[in-house]
Write a structure and sequence with these properties.
Elements lengths: L14 E17 L2 H13 L4 H24 L4 E13 L2 E15 L1
Antiparallel strand pairs: 1-3, 2-3
Length: 109
């Protein structure tokens, strides 16, 4: 699915929603490794962006997004509207990332 057909809005400019297929989601659960925590602790001493955690978060969001797109495709969707992310700590050092939206069929106007 082309990334241009995924939006946080509730419509896609230049397209008409012809059918709502329902909610789609992608879920991933990630944990920080002991080595990663040690490296991040050293980075936090200096201050600024803690790149080890930034990379972990970006990887989790990318995976959740890809799973959501795959879910929409399996339902026959060619677009996703109203996309959102949510996170939840399951336990210390373990985080769930959810990406969700509404799968739709769209046509160019």
């Amino acid at each position: 699915m082309d990334n241009a057909l995924v939006t946080t809005g509730f419509g896609l400019e230049g397209y008409k929603v012809v059918k709502h297929l329902g909610m789609v989601r992608g879920i991933t659960v990630r944990s920080r490794s002991v080595i990663g925590n040690i490296g991040a602790a050293f980075q936090s001493l200096v201050g600024g962006n803690i790149t080890l955690y930034t990379e972990l978060c970006e990887h989790a969001r990318t995976e959740a997004y890809a799973l959501m797109v795959s879910h929409a495709e399996s339902m026959g969707g060619n677009g996703i509207i109203g996309v959102r992310y949510d996170t939840n700590d399951i336990m210390d050092g373990v985080t769930e990332v959810v990406c969700y939206g509404t799968a739709v069929n769209i046509q160019p106007m």
